[in-house]
Amino acid sequence: MASATSLARRIAPPRLWPFLAIAAILVVGAVLAPLIAPYDPNAQNLLGRLRAPGTEVRGVVYWLGSDELGRDLLSRLIHGARVSLTVAALSVVASGIVGTVLGMIAAWYRGIVGAIIMRLVDIVLSVPAILLAIITVAIMGPGLVNVVVVLAFTRWPRYARVAYGQTLGLASMPYVRLSRFMGGSTLWVLGRHVLPNIVGPIMVVATLEFGLMVLFEAGLSFLGLGVQPPTPSWGSILATGRNYVTTAWWIAVFPGLFLFLLVLTVNVLGDHVRDVVEGRR
Amino acid sequence: MSAAREPVLDVRNLRVRIGEADVVDGVDLSIAPGETLALVGESGCGKSLTALALIGLLPEAARRIDGEIRLSGERIDALPERVMNRIRGGRIGMIFQEPVASLDPLMSVGGQIAEALALEGPITPREARERAIAMLDHVGITKPELRVDQYPFELSGGMCQRVMIAMAMIRRPLLLVADEPTTALDVTIQAQILRLMADLRAETGAAVLLITHDMGVVAETAERIAVMYAGRVVETGRVADVFAAPRHPYTALLMRTIPRLEGARKVALPAIAGSVPDVASWPVGCRFAPRCPLATDRCRAEAPPLAPVGAPSQRAACWHTDRVSEIAA
């Protein structure tokens, strides 16, 4: 029998604690941004432009420096975490739902329905995601909501493939056949027996995709196609920083560092989720 | 009830086709209330496809191209899927071969039994749980109020099969279709499960279609037997009559393969030479002819009909029913 402590260690072994701490800090920071950010992220101060980290200007301390409009970089990064995490979370949820549902349907009905869905998967996967995203944003216009829609639209095939393969395997399981035998409708069987049994592998894809979504959002914002100014986003701050990289390195370095830490953390945790899920089977 | 009572299941001329071949080729079956019919044969003889065709759940590649199926007199072979869904699980119960794999690993035992009830009609979770506990108790599971919340991995194979039986019987079906229900179990557990099925059958009056390749199981549980070979019923009758004097060479040879306690030791167990031919190469005449010690030119040219022979209940499809006693054990 596994005791409570050994179970806890299996779910969250000590080597993951630093990453869990980073994840917790980022999430709490994003949620409580207005409370913990030292200043208004959009407050400009033309006397305090491009100040180095630690500079104090008229009682305002720029812990991580200031940008070209004298806005506090730390405050902007804390608020930017909201955008990064929200966009990543929403797009993972949206693409995960769409992909899982379509993958299950494809595997359940197979035949013509399955062929159409899975060829669509191939088509979407064969077009570079960032290119597809740029085209879609170009048509629909930039903005936070549109970025989520774009990411959901370009990323669902990953989930669809996993859901398809898993459902195909489950469809021949006796308990799935039995539920169908007892009169369970397609919706009933998929919802009660198939979905719960494929959630593990789907979660693995979702955590790994989450890091990628953070980067995609940053990339789109960097290109000016994502979140629009003055709303702070790590990608757009990074883009501005590029112009000043020789004179004010901190504007580019800190958002880059935050991105690096977030994606690293998500990937390490995602790998762990995969190990736990696969070890369970 | 009289001898003329209506059969629970009555099948006439069932044909199932896969590709170009009729893998079930004109099967007739009939089961009276409270009766167990054993459908016996080697792997690949069509017995499972027959059962799946009866309940309208054939795999995609297979099609039922002919046959009338009546459940308590009512035609069910042409019903729309929606109506069939109500009949399956309600008036027909099913037990699969692999008891552990037949339970959803992520759903509690009570949840799965409740599912059978929920598919019948609206039911409160509390009532479903109570009925599940009562049914678990009924199928001989100890501490049912504890087991009801356990998951399949916490149960033994025999207990899983009891849960399966509980799921199949909780809606009091007229017909229970059991596909190799004891094959995956230990011999001692097999006997318990067979006894449980017999008890429930006696109590509810359900008819049982038992699919098996185990002649020992047939002898213990069934009243009547239908022996299938290569998609056809080759012999049928009361188990006692058929076992006493089989009238088809295949039945006789199958009986000889049952290991016996008496007699000389260290004698090789008898086997039937060859295997069931591939569907594509079924012979024109009697399909058993290539493996039959009694086969003559007539057998290879002309398929024998299933005709009355021997005991009143007995029918066999063989041209040489009078010579079968030569090869009987």
UniProtKB/TrEMBL annotation, chain A:
Transmembrane in keyword set: yes
Keyword Heme among record annotations: no
Subcellular location: Cell membrane
One GO CC annotation: plasma membrane
Family under the similarity heading: Belongs to the binding-protein-dependent transport system permease family.
Annotated ranges, domain ABC transmembrane type-1: 81-270
UniProtKB keywords: Cell membrane, Membrane, Transmembrane, Transmembrane helix, Transport
Gene3D superfamilies: MetI-like
Organism: Salinarimonas ramus
Tree of life domain: Bacteria
A matching Pfam family: BPD_transp_1
GO biological-process terms attached to the record: transmembrane transport
Record membrane topology: Multi-pass membrane protein
Identification of the protein by name: Peptide ABC transporter permease
Transmembrane regions: 16-37, 83-108, 120-153, 159-178, 198-227, 247-270
Cross-referenced InterPro entries: BP-dependent_transpt_permease, MetI-like, MetI-like_sf, OppC_N
UniProtKB/TrEMBL annotation, chain B:
Positions of the ABC transporter domain: 9-255
NCBIfam families, per database record: oligo_HPY
Protein name: ABC transporter ATP-binding protein
Keyword match Cell membrane: yes
Matching SUPFAM superfamilies: P-loop containing nucleoside triphosphate hydrolases
One MF term in the entry's GO annotations: ATP hydrolysis activity
PANTHER family, A to Z: DIPEPTIDE TRANSPORT ATP-BINDING PROTEIN DPPD (PTHR43297:SF2), OLIGOPEPTIDE TRANSPORT ATP-BINDING PROTEIN APPD (PTHR43297)
Family in the record: Belongs to the ABC transporter superfamily.
